[in-house]
Amino acid sequence: MLANWGYQDGSGSYFITIDTDKCNGCGKCVEPCSQGVFEVGEDPADPLREEPVAFVTEAIRKKLRFSCSPCKKYLTAEGGSAASRTSPEVLAREMKNLPCVTACERGAITHSW
Amino acid sequence: MNKEEKKELWRWLESRWTNPDIDWKKGKIITAGIDIGSVSTQCVVMVDGELYCYGNLRSGSSSGDSASRGANFALDGTGMTVKDWHYCIGTGYGRVNVPMAKRAITEIACHGRGANWMYGPQVRTILDMGGQDCKVIRIDEKGKLTNFAMNDKCAAGAGRGMEVFADFIGISINEVGDRSFDIDEEPKPVSSTCVIFAKSEAGGLLREGWAANKVLAAYCSAMAHRVLELMMRVGLEPEVGITGGIAKNRGVVERLEKELGMKFSPKVWHNSEYQKRNIPFDTQIAGAVGAALFSKAAVEKGKG
Fold it and tell me: Taking a contact as any Cβ pair under 8 Å apart, which residues of chain B between 106 and 125 contact chain A?
């Protein structure tokens, strides 16, 4: 299941997507995030699932734009600022530098921005 | 202002229903689901997996009270009490404060399961337009979620906004849908996405001389637009079922259908017996239905 945690408002769309079919609940994404975005526990969207899964902490879901902004620095290393980024491919490559994305060995975490 | 003269135009219709063909005393498994939403509360009781009764009413400020009122409303005249339930699950915004519930499950999971049961296994996408949020859920044929997104950050595109709007325009919320089509020409949607700003924008349009119906049309249209974006994020796979209070407002639903270029599943029970017996299909009870089904699964698993 693709669990899209986040929101969309006048300023844009801020979702962290966790592919729960890939996630094994190992919890390696929890520590690297300086803002405590992730937690691991019973799947909020699937009560019948036996193993734990990672999800975005409820208190942070509505302010992802701000919680995730400290990691913008990882997205400007190659292509400059967001406005001058040359292509979606560059962005996709830079995304892989994000601490949470790097930490997930199974590649379960993606971002909408 | 004289209280009796003040009409409460935002008040939508509450509903309740009991299945006259079931003698609950003969039932083996009696389960319940209580969905405490931000605007409405539903209680659904199932006997051996068949719909026995439900109640749908407005939520109060206390989730615990709303749960009790919901349960009493649903059980009214049935002779059943909360003590007769083998298992009850709470869901929705106030799910952790349901005193009679043994467990709480998120409304996302419950909606998927409930809509799958109500509409049938052919439904792959569910749009739930609730009181203060909006969810798009993709499910498989068993009602298991495959993808979902939820917007509960603001009330634009949700039922509460429609309540505010109906009250402001001075038209009963139950008439908004029909009235929004009683126009000469479809207006552009109001540009504000925020309820508060949309309300002041509507005030401006009224002063410009727009007819009330036309303003309603512009607002319904804006609401449809707003949901569309969330739907595109999750992706659509037919059939699409719609649940929640706004599903009853054809002003929004039909405009959304037009934008999507597809029709929502007809609001009829998958179970043909239910269809034949004319059991009222209430789009607002999907979450509570799902909770009651999970309750049944819990009892069968021996957790009851």
Answer: 106, 108-109
